[in-house]
Amino acid sequence: MFSTLAVFLLLLFSAVTKQSSSSVIVRGGDEVVLACENMMGPIKCLRIHWLFSKLSQGTALTLVKFGHPNQTQAAREKADRLRVSSNCSLIIQKVSAADVGTYYCQQVQEQMELIHTVALSLVNSDHQLTSDDEEVTLNCSVIPNDPCKHNVKWLYQGQNIDKHNTNLETKYSLCAAEVTFKSLHYVYEPGRYNSLQCAVEDCYIKNE
User: Fold this and answer.
1) Residue 54: which of 63, 65, 45, 46 has the closest Cα?
2) Which residues, 6+ apart, have CB-to-CB distance to 78 below 8 Å?
3) Residue 87 to residue 67: CA distance in whole angstroms
4) How far does the chain reach from its first CA to its final CA, in angstroms?
5) Which CATH class, in words, describes the domain spanning 14-121?
6) DSSP state of 167
7) Lowest mean pLDDT among 58-67, 84-93, 117-126, 190-199
8) What pTM was computed for the model?
């Protein structure tokens, strides 16, 4: 009888954990909003903790504790760029490669614990001119939070660039893409530069 009661009480008072996940891709230098999804009941950010981890780190870093940025020495470097919105989302300003990783929104309420993970990846882009200024190369790459799961490609006026297009030559590699064209090409003229766009797709989402 006693053992049966003990098991019943253990089940009664053990917190139930529910998990969900999402992913976000942001350009370097931009601001990003990481949503704490599947909130339980009325929003109370004082019950919210945000943690951050990278594959290269052994333990997770607590960024937000009880709804407020953590002021420990380890978290202070990020704290100046962090704030928590009214709906408990984590807002990061001037995102850099150091911010790439996995973020955990932990919410505990009564006998329920909810953990939402957000995988944050970064997109970088730049351009290079040859020494004689005759050719231009645009580079676009993704710094992923884990092994690359993204397709990166260049679009011209919203469409895929034909691999036989001799005016716009493309090269693709893991999590990166480049397009090269003559500096005299009309896409390099003022007002036409935006006709080339870097597109990033999550392979896992695409195949679902």
Assistant:
1) 63
2) 52, 63, 92, 99
3) 10
4) 50
5) mainly beta
6) S
7) 190-199
8) 0.78
Dump pLDDT digits (tens) for 20-49. 888 899 999 999 999 998 776 666 788 889
Give the helix/strand (H/E) hosting 141.
strand 135-143
| C-alpha angle 123-129-134 in degrees, rounded to nearest 5 | 140
CATH classification of 130-207, choosing from 2.60.120.200, 3.30.70.890, 2.60.40.10, 2.60.40.3500?
Answer: 2.60.40.10
What does 76-106 look like in DSSP terms, one character per residue?
Answer: HHHHTTEEE-TT--EEESS--GGG-EEEEEE
Residue 116 structure tokens: 């939402």
Q: Encoding tokens for residue 191?
A: 């007002």
Phi-psi region of 162 (alpha: psi -120 to 50; beta: other; left: phi over 0): beta
List pLDDT tens digits, range 105-159.
998 777 778 899 999 999 998 888 776 778 888 899 999 888 888 889 999 888 9
Question: For the chain, what is the radius of gyration of the CA atoms?
Answer: 23
- Residues contacting 159, CB < 8 A, separation 6+: none
Domain boundaries, the chain: 14-121, 130-207
